[in-house]
Amino acid sequence: MPEAAILNSGSHSLWPRRETLETALPFLALLVMLGIIFAVRPTVFSYFGLTLLFKLAIPLMFAALSQMLIINLGEIDLSNGAFVGLVTCIVAVYLEKAPGHAVLLLVGTVLVYVAVGWLISVRKLPSIVVTLGMSFVWLGCAIIILPAPGGHSPAWLIDAMRWKPPLMPLPLWTALGIAVIGHWALKSSSYGIVLRGAGANPKSVARAGWSLVKARLLLYAGAALLAVIAGLFLSGITTSGDPNVAPGYTMLGVGAVILGGGTFNGGVVSPIGTVVGALTLSLASSVLSFLQVAPVWQIGAQGLILFLVLAGRVLIGGRRL
Amino acid sequence: MVPGDLIAMDSIRKAFGAVHALAGVDFHVDRGEVVGLIGHNGAGKSTLMNVLFGTTQRDSGRFHIAGREIAGAFTPHQAHEAGIRCVFQELSLCENLDVVENTRILHRSLQGIGWRRRARRLIADQLDAIFPGHGIALKARIADLPIGARQMVEIARAFTVTDAPLRCVILDEPTSSLGHEATRQFLAFVRQAAGQGVAAIVISHRLDEILNVCDRVVVMVDGRVVAQQRSEGLTRPDLVAMMGSIEVPRAVAKARDGSHDQTRDRVIDAPGRDAHDLPIHLAPGEIIGFAGLDGHGQRERMRALFHAGLKASRDRHRPAVAYVAGDRQTEGVFRIWSIADNLTIGTLPSLCRGPLISAAASRSLVEGWMARMKVKTDSADRPILSLSGGNQQKVLFARALASDARTVFLDDPMRGVDVGTKVEVYRLIRAEAAQGRSFVWYATELDELTNCDRIYVFREGRAVEHLEGTDIRQDRILAASFGGMVNA
Predict the structure, then answer these.
(1) Contacts of B55 in chain A (CB under 8 A)
(2) Are strands B438-442 and B407-411 parallel, antiparallel or unpaired?
(3) Are residues B27 and B85 in the same domain?
(4) What digits encode the pLDDT tens for the residues A102-122?
(5) Of A74, A102, A157, B326, which cross-links A95 as Cys (Cβ 3.0–4.6 Å)?
(6) Which runs of E-coded beta strand occur in B179-328?
(7) What is the CATH number of the domain that holds B263?
């Protein structure tokens, strides 16, 4: 039958499929970074070396996954970094002395975050504007709680972040764990399909009888929880709180999602890709240090690396981000 | 209602603002019956189906499904539970998901361990049953499938059954992207499903298919059911006559004197795409209409002509062209600008004194047009969105007419505009034409076309019929739109 023949042709080709390449890209970028570091300093490849290298990637992975859930809705969260900063302040000031207060405050911030998401959905507001505004609100709250960097994270949290699990360093176990959970939740579970559908074609999902409001609120709540975890772990690593500790997370998170195969169209995101993307981007500054780039050039050079890696995405995909 | 009816809708009414989309419709479907629903643009077919599927709420009217009364709001979820499925004209699959995942979206019960395996079997079996030899890869994302395959998936998905029963499938232009063989398979399957008690409602402009597959044909005109008949013995000309028989053709615009149809004067002279596509030409002072069912290539052709006109005026100093968009909100108005700014944006070069815009020149232009168009507002400095839809459209007309464009393209500009405004604008268009301006007018309402000197009727992307003067009659337009009778 001619129609069948047309449909079948094209899927068999000598070249790897575009999708395969897209999936492989974040892994390739990570390998290139690691390759450079290995060439310069082979001793990094020890349990201890990898722990140090990836330590700061742990909170970034969670922040990137948080951003991913919002990008799945076809929106963007510019307040992610400020929100994580606020969480580190709440953790460092209250969690040890008044755990009840700390939990209440964290639950409160999550609720406000979800409420803002609900407002964006119901009133069809541009998320870029609302979350930009919210970033200043979160920063302001953080400064009220902790005007200057300081406080002290609870000892159990600091110890937990220093835990040395068997076989692999903690950051790599974390990456594996959340990549698997994220993949299951969004790509394998039956409701995850609905969540991705709601990001790409909300009308169609609503016509199939699903509640869009519920799907959106779930995604916003998930994003808030992941950002709280990011702040908690970041505070455990730095042992203190700082309102301005993580402004870079917002854009690094977006970069990780896009590098990992996500698009701004909604519904197209990859949890595994995002985690690997976050690992890759967290290495950018280390790579530059190993290459002995002068500190004044490092920030600009990091941007260049981000640009090159994302350009790879565009070259392969040929699709709009 | 008749007790045996599967679907009984009585005196259903639905208004959108001042427009009565459904003006008291009675619509019944029997178990296992295949009903064809036909009518021209805006007849209310889609609205009726949206009410039946729960995506639009009726204003009033009684509504029973399988003997159970639907009181109050009706949701797509309830429709699904009641056994009603819908294949929408704009396909409603999620492009980022694969075929199996899209099947899951439709069925709540496909969850828990092994849902993907069950969904795969469900859709694979259904595709094989309807389109044997379809060759669609179930793992392919919808975005990577050609349009015909998407339509097959959408149709097959609508016929899959899990826990809710399957009683009636609404098929809105289901064959528009299917190939010949797939269409044949599909029609045969609809008959087969009907034999097993599954009813279908088929909306199609392909009247042969309607006659081929349907037990009964229901004809809608202007939000009412005007005729219904068993399809045995009916012919295509019969159906066309049923759609056009209600309104007496209006008095047509006076025939032109013919002095301007010398070829050399033409402002547009575009060949067709192929032998079946008529060439389109336009003389100064002429109004030509693009007719036919909505979405049959009129807008695409008009935009192509407009862009060719833009290029010609830029590169070869041909007279300027202007475009009046029908989709005001997305293509027409600058939402946060004032009325005056919206009006003058097309004429800024002529309002400039040196490098700056002259406030006085701009004001006099705006005041002149506001008066001429009778825009109802107290000040042209108010935001454009403070105006009603009809008045916004007048401003867009003024924008085009105030420019030096000699050819104006009208993209169904009267959509959602009240009758009073329409009459004023029709008069204005004719007055402008009398002064030598030319108009290309895409109109979805049959009535509007009587303002044109000549019309081209489009079907499936081509201009298939050219009507002039007294030949511009509803029956002729309908016949050409639906590919109907040869000798009207």
Answers:
(1) 207
(2) parallel
(3) yes
(4) 999 999 999 999 999 999 988
(5) A102
(6) 199-203, 216-221, 224-230, 268-270, 280-282, 287-291, 321-324
(7) 3.40.50.300
How crowded is residue A280: how many other Cβ atoms within 10 Å of its Cβ?
28
Q: How many domains does chain B have?
A: 2
Domain termination residue (choose one: B186, B214, B243): B243
Nearest to A201 among B80, B94, B115 (CB): B94
pTM of the full predicted structure? 0.78
What residues have CB less than 8 Å from B103, skipping those under 6 apart?
B110, B119, B120, B122, B123, B157, B160
Cross-chain CB nearest to A3 (options B105, B112, B179) = B179
pLDDT, position B264:
57
Contact B94 A7 (CB under 8 A): no
Using alpha carbons, select from B55, B69, B162 the residue that is nearest to residue B108.
B162
Tell me the shortest Cα–Cα distance from A205 to chain B, in angstroms: 7
Confirm or reject contact between B101 and chain A (CB < 8 A): yes
Query: Which tens digits make up the pLDDT trace of A170-221?
Result: 999 999 999 999 999 999 999 999 999 999 999 899 989 899 999 999 999 9
Distances (CA, A) of B76 to B53, B81, B227: 6, 9, 28
Best mutation target among B89, B105, B109, B136 (most A Cβ atoms within 10 Å) is B105
Pick from A256, A252, A285, A249: nearest CA to A272: A256
